[in-house]
Amino acid sequence: MHHQPDGVTFDVVLLLHVGCVVVGVVTTATAAATAARLRRLVGSSRPLPEPLRRYFRPGVNWAGRTVYGIPVFGFALVAMSRGAYALGQGWVLGGLAVFAALALVGEGMLWPAEQRVQVALSQVDDGGGGDVTVQTLECDATVLSRAAVAALALLVVGTVLMVAQP
Fold first, then answer.
1. 3-class DSSP state of 165
2. How far apart are CA 132 and CA 136, in angstroms?
3. pTM of the model
């Protein structure tokens, strides 16, 4: 039985690993809440509030992409553990599987839906409107909201798995 790893470097990498999870949870929860708010307001006759428009300003959600630091720092922790952790352990493999599902949800549904909402709202703001309809915006906001909830659930499952280390 190996002892629990310690040392300043290990602790810093562990903090970075956990920090990526925390930022991922916060940005994903924010995306879910904001998408749900957009979905409620888009069909109403009222104009969308400025904070909502600002949230969906076009651009890449770099804060959300910090989740890619989770496996990077996780691999570093395994390498620095001096044998206490191994890639073949069930909880490590489970964490990798959860992260793979998280990446699929993020890249396959969450961030593309977020991009579509950004484009649609920027077209409306520019007065072009194009083929943007209330139904399209509601649909994309629904996909975004549901994907964010799924990603949030995966982050919670991964966190429980890492803490429990069954």
1. coil
2. 6
3. 0.89
